[in-house]
Amino acid sequence: MTLEELLETASATEREERMKHGLPPAHVLDIAEFPFKFAAPLFKQAFESIAHWVATMPAEPRVHLFSACANVLSGDYRAADAALEKLRALTKSPLALMQFGGLVARQPIQLPPVTGTWPREAAFFVSCDNQYFETYGIPLLRSLAAASPGCPIHVHIIGEPAVLPDVALKITTTLEPQPINFRLPDYYGAARFVRFAEALEASQVPLVMIDADALVTANPRHLLAQCNDVTLRIRAGRIEPWHHFSACYIGGSPACMTYFRRVADIVLRTIDASFWGLDQYALFAAYAQLSPRLNLIGPDIASVDAEIPGIFWFTAGNEKKNLASADSSYARLFRSFAAHSSSCDPVP
Question: Which domains are seen in the chain, by residue range?
Fold first, then answer.
C-alpha cells in the first residue's frame, strides 16, 4: 500500500467507524475526537512512513508537505513549521507559506476600505460578489425570510453592487471595490474573514457568517445567542490542515475578538499568494496558536448531506454545479427559492 493509499484508508476508516458508533461521519462533536478517534493506529503507521520518506527523499517537495500535515495532526506545530521551511526552499507553492507555531514572516497587506453600514444587532453574515449573490445569495435570503421573517442579516458584497430581493428581513449592507491582482475565487473566500473581524469589532454584537450557497430550513435566530465561544464545524478524518476547520458556518462574539483578529491577520499575510483553502487554513492556524474555547456544531445545525437538511443546509462541488437538474432534496428546495419572483432593491 502506498503512502497516499494508507492516508486515504485512514480517512475513510475514521468516517466509517464514526458511523458504526453512531457519530456523524462529517462532523467532530468533541475536540477530544480530533483528529482521529478510531483510525489512530492507521495514522500512526502513515506518520512512520512519512518520517522514513523524509529521510530517504529530502529533495522531494511533497515529502515535506506530507510531513507538515502529519506533524500538525500530531500537534507538533514547531515540527510542522520546520517541514514547511524545507518546502519553501524547494518550491514556490503558496502552501509553503503556511505556519502553525507562529505567524507567517510577511507583513499583512491592507485591503481597500469598505462603504456601508455594519450591523448593530446580532445578525447572520454573508459575503460574496454580485454574480454569486444573484445565483446563490438571493435563494438563501428568501429561504431565511420564509423560515424567520424579520431576521437580521448582513450582506457584504465584493465588487459591483448587488441587487437585494424584496424579502421580510432586516438587512444591512457593506460594499468593497473589486480587488486587483488577486486570484478572485481565493480572494472572495478568504477576504470575508477580514471583513467578519471588522464587523465584530465595529458592531460589538454576536455574528454568524454562513456560506452564500446555503439554504435555511428552520428558524435559526436562537443560534445567534450561542456563539460566545468560537463556533464552527470541524471535519472528521481529514489529513490536510486546510481542510480541518470548515468555513461554511462560523460564529463569534466580541469575546472572541482575539481569535478572529488572528484569523484576519493570517489571511492578510497570505492572501496575495493565496490558495484554495486559505480561509480554512487560517481558522485552524489561529486555533493552533491561541487555543480558544470551541463550540462545535453538528449536522442538525450545518448539514452537508444533499438529502438530510439541517437548520442551515450546505452544498458544494458537483452538487452545486448541477442544482438546475439534480434530483436531490437540496436541489429541489434550491430551485423552489431560485424560481421565486419578487421585486428587488439595489444595494447602496
Answer: 3-23+34-97 (no CATH), 115-346 (3.90.550.10)
